[in-house]
Write a structure and sequence with these properties.
Order of helices and strands of chain A: HHEHHEEHH
CATH topology of chain A: Arc Repressor Mutant, subunit A
CATH architecture of chain A: Orthogonal Bundle
CATH class of chain A: Mainly Alpha
Structural class of chain A: alpha+beta
Oligomer: homodimer
Number of helices of chain A: 6
Strand order of the largest sheet of chain A: 1-3-2
Radius of gyration of chain A: 16 Å
Number of domains of chain A: 1
DNA sequence: TCCATGTTTCCAGAGTTCATGAAACATTGG
DNA sequence: CCAATGTTTCATGAACTCTGGAAACATGGA
């Protein structure tokens, strides 16, 4: 991943509503959620959510698909993957024990 | 990790100079780097860097220690650990294959 | 065709963030 | 002590971000 993409992803995630929405979609997994369902879950107005989803979309962190009148959103785990790889690139200064716990945490989450 | 901390960390990382500085410190590992060395490596003015380091410090992503006239900074991998755990909490909607590549990427980085 | 529903776009104003120059502070050596 | 070095603090203006109301757009059903 390039720095520009990483910055876009990080700055997209560094806002309350967008972080909530993204994590909701991560939890939803392959099923995703419609914009309306996200609105309701988070208690955000449609126009505000729409603006925020489009920022996540632009950052490549989510994708979407029209489904009748609704639009369904999905977390893009590939992009997440790329972001984490970028952040931890060449980490630990050749001392793998330092960041072993990071691996364990993530293994536990999945 | 709580959402407030995660937001602070993400917003700290979502800025060019700070992302560079943090990644530099991740690469430096346990040795860390002095503020001056970071300045030189990134080509940033001391006051600008100082402001940005203090934001990383506040977010808990780096720590520091005075060393004579210099101040040495270190990436805090524990906080990074917490952040990744928070982002991937309950991920994949019960479908572990989806985020397996994320784990592989990180394992390769370390 | 017309209306209801779900979502996005546009606009404007309040608030936040950023880099910069100048000044202050802390530590070391003469 | 005093000067030099390394770093931080402060104040400022320009640029950016966020939210909310109003309006537009897309789809499906009567």
């Amino acid at each position: 991943m390039e720095k520009t993409q990483a910055l876009a992803a990080l700055s997209a995630l560094s806002q309350d509503t967008r972080l909530d929405a993204f994590r909701l979609l991560v939890k939803a997994g392959g099923e995703g959620m419609t914009a309306g369902a996200i609105c309701e879950a988070l208690g955000v107005r449609p126009n505000t959510l729409s603006a925020n989803l489009s920022i996540l979309l632009n950052a490549g962190l989510v994708s979407n698909r029209r489904e009748g009148r609704s639009i369904r959103y999905f977390a893009d785990m590939d992009r997440m993957n790329g972001l984490l790889g970028f952040l931890l690139e060449d980490c630990c200064g050749g001392n793998p024990e330092v960041c072993r716990p990071v691996l364990d945490t993530i293994a536990r989450a999945c």
